[in-house]
Amino acid sequence: MKITITGRKMELTESMKQAAEKKISKLSKFFSDDAEATVTFSIEKDRHTVEATIYYNGMIYRAQETNADMYAALDRVVDVIERQIRKNKTRLEKRLRANAFDKSADFVGASVEEEKEFNIVKTKRYALKPMSAEEAILQMNLLGHEFYLFKNAETNDNNLVYKRKNGDYGLIEIE
Question: Is 13 found in the same domain as 83?
């Protein structure tokens, strides 16, 4: 696994780099060598934030944690990503091997955590209107949504704006 460690608005110490590499490399047991991991450390006042993203086979695993202690935030990020990996692995195995396992006496004593099925309860259709990102943010806020899909008037591409946890906004350009 290729690991990239960066610091935002801070100087990274060698011990922080080593700790991040050690913790993230524990996740390499789930991936082959072509996986890429990015770890970003940042500090705002007394809040230490660790953000980790792993790209593998078109899948993206991402976690962000904030804590007073940088190493505690790193531990939590690794735990969250490991949970995401295990959950996704179970879902993929279940999808690939539907009816592959016979529920026989072999599994009576084993406790298997069942994956919840996703129920789509509502479907909406609407035409994408050409507008700027600022207009899309205003529309999103008027609707009270966390994200808004629109056609960018400048590039004529489909874009998505979303509200981030810190109150800022993000833009995803869909090609």
Answer: yes
